[in-house]
Amino acid sequence: MTTADLPETRCAPVRKSKAAKRSAHSQRCDDEDFGSEFCRWAQEKLAGEPSGRQDLLEALQGHVVTLAFHRWGCRVMQYALDAADDVSRVLLADELRGHALAACFSLHANFVLSKIIEVAPPIGSQWIFE
Predict the structure, then answer these.
(1) Residue among 89, 105, 6 nearest 53 (CA)
(2) Cα–Cα distance, 112 to 65 (Å, whole number)
(3) I need a surface site. Which of 1, 57, 82, 84 has the fewest CB within 10 A?
(4) Helices 109-119 + 86-94 axis angle, to 10
(5) How much is the pTM?
(6) In terms of Cα–Cα distance, which of 57, 102, 101 is closest to 81?
């Protein structure tokens, strides 16, 4: 008899308790609330005073790839690209260099690529087509 024949090691569907399902649902709702709050806060910052806008644009640098592939982060990146000047747009867009193919197939990052093509100067988005 092999270990694969033992009842404990057979592939069986894992059943979650009702409490675990409620906890997972509660976590999704909390993430949803946090994500929408984050988007709203970023929109206000980007539409507000130039100093606050620039602070947020600088804070986003280094996190573009992570945000672009995230459900809420991709929206924030689109708002940022709309609000940024050409220099900041090129800096933010350049962080996605090397990730263009994955972004094309992503449910979220494809919108960031589209926004880059729409608002960035041609020299700042040429790498997408290469």
Answers:
(1) 89
(2) 10
(3) 1
(4) 140
(5) 0.73
(6) 57
Alpha carbon distance 88, 31 (integer Å): 29
Locate 74 and state its tokens: 């991709």
Burial of 43 (0-12, 13-18, 19+ CB in 10 A): middle
**Cβ burial, residue 29 (10 Å; 0-12/13-18/19+):** exposed
Q: Which of 114, 50, 63 has the alpha carbon at shortest distance from 91?
A: 63
Q: CB-based contacts of 35: which residues, under 8 Å, 6+ apart? A: 71, 72
The most distant pair of C-alpha atoms in the chain lies apart, rounded to whole Å, by: 73
Q: Tokens 């997408």 map to which residue? A: 128
Q: pLDDT tens across 42-99, in order?
A: 889 899 899 889 999 999 999 999 999 999 999 999 999 999 999 999 999 999 999 9
